[in-house]
Amino acid sequence: MDKKDTEEEDHPLKNNDGKAVENNNDMSGEKDVCIKKPNRLSRLSKIRTAMFFGSLFLCLTAVFAFSFIIPCPVRPFSERTWSIQYNNSVGYPFLATEDVNKDNVQDVLFLFKTDIASKLNVSCADEGFQSPCFFLSALSGTNGSALWVKPISDGDVQLVECGIHNLGGVNSVGCVGIRKPGVILAIDSTTGHALWEKPTGFATEFTLIKPMLKVPDVDRDGVEDLMVFLFAENELQSAVFSGKNGDRIGQGWRIGTDQPSGYYTHVTKSKANYVLFYKGSSIAAYSVSELCSYTAVLEAKPTAQDPDWEAQRNSSAGFIPVVASSSSGKIRYILSVPGRYYNNILVVRSEVSELLDGQKFQTLWTVNTTSILSKPALGFFKRDVLSIMMELETGMNRKKIIIIDSNTGALQWEFDLNLGIARQNPAVLNTGDHRSTFLFWGVNSPDSTNITELEENLFMFHPSHPNALLQLNNHTENIIMFSAALFERSRHACYILITGPNTTEDPGTLIVSKRKLKEDISHSKVIWFGTEEVNTEGIRDDFFRMRYSSH
User: Fold this and answer.
1) Residue (of 402, 441, 436) closest to 423 by Cα position
2) Do 205 and 167 share a structural domain?
3) Is 73 part of a structural domain of the chain?
4) Domain boundary, last residue among 328, 354, 370
5) Which residue range(s) make up the domain with 93?
6) Closest Cα partner for 426 from 372, 361, 463, 350?
7) Helix (H, G, I), strand (E, B), or coil: what is residue 95?
8) Rounded to whole angstroms, how far apart are CA atoms 136 and 151?
9) Last residue of some domain: 164, 187, 210?
10) Measured distance between the N- and C-terminal CA atoms of the chain, rounded to whole angstroms
11) pLDDT, tens digit, for every residue of 98-155?
12) Is the dihedral angle over the CA atoms 452, 457, 463, 467 positive or is it negative?
């Protein structure tokens, strides 16, 4: 191998360069191409780099803007507990929760009577009423501040209901009130402003049978209408009012001469709606479409009538007898209990209560309910299996709390305690484990003959600890209303109390308060009635960590 070949192997690039130089004259065009290509690639590379850094700059600018410049929505801070006091006032048995100011936190609506309006920045005279008068008020669920206050009556208030949709023909939720002498009015829950106010056309003396019934659009103005039942001039009557403007639709219809203790609405398997009036030990059912057509003297929107129910109609009496008058015990309450395919009917009597098949009226089970004290509550003792909680007086100032299976009537849990003086219905909050927390009032004292008259205890029970109760709080004031609710979806479980004098007593100090359950749990007393050793602090921690469900 000669010296030239060795040099080419050791320096190949040098060898190529040498060739390019040697053939300069013959390959000048090819050389030009080689020079132009690197310039074009370099230009494209610079453009790509500029686009990359430009995109990066825009992304960083957007991140910076959303992080520091554009404020995020501020989540309202909910106080764990708040209490509002009204002097020289009396309470009314009405309490509702609703998101009035649209901050995703439930607010409190209640009714009270007072003659002191300076604190409220509104007076009875604003609506032409004499003082004292009734005020409907909405309090913020976050801190108890007044969202609005509305004078509604200086006479007797017969009915107040909230949570009624599309009142006034607007896409909002409102409240309806009926006062003597015969005026019906609607109020926008968001603002407290009156949507409409109209005379009812009722007789001078009347008694309303609560609650109000929402019925299909009778006058066909695009808004559901309102039906009320009243006992006047020795007969039970029905009347329909327009949900859009409050006008009376048609004339009153005479249903019968008996004044019922109350009524309940039932939805059958075929989605037909029936009204069940109960008095004594009997129940008489009427279809909603039938009541609308008679009352309004107009052709109501067609609603299906259930063939199973209609087959049992008493043609001569004009109604469907659900329970014979020979049944034992006075009917105290009627509740709808969901079944597998349709709702069943729980008839709660003063002696024996029974669950009726919602289609055939057959008795599914019975349970002894002598001296029932309050309206039963529905919850879940077992996961996704509906249960019924009842309070029964057992004598000697004692009562028993029982929880029974809604499918069989079998006893699932019971507890005895002193009665106390509170007559509030128990409350239920569903938990994230597909069961429920049960809240009820009583007095935990081993000596039933030595009880502080005004002492009341709120107890909390959850099936995860069947041998334990939490004693949450003590109250000595007269309790007018009690309710439990989730103030925020799936969290912030609370209970609301209205304490003080009621409408039959002299004015005094009225207090509306909200307490978060966790606040009371952290200071609660664990009552253990099992035989084995137990870690009470661990039980309290389990209740404190409990999650709640809106479903």
Assistant:
1) 441
2) no
3) no
4) 370
5) 88-187
6) 372
7) strand
8) 6
9) 187
10) 93
11) 999 998 999 999 999 998 766 778 899 989 999 999 999 999 999 999 999 999 999 9
12) negative
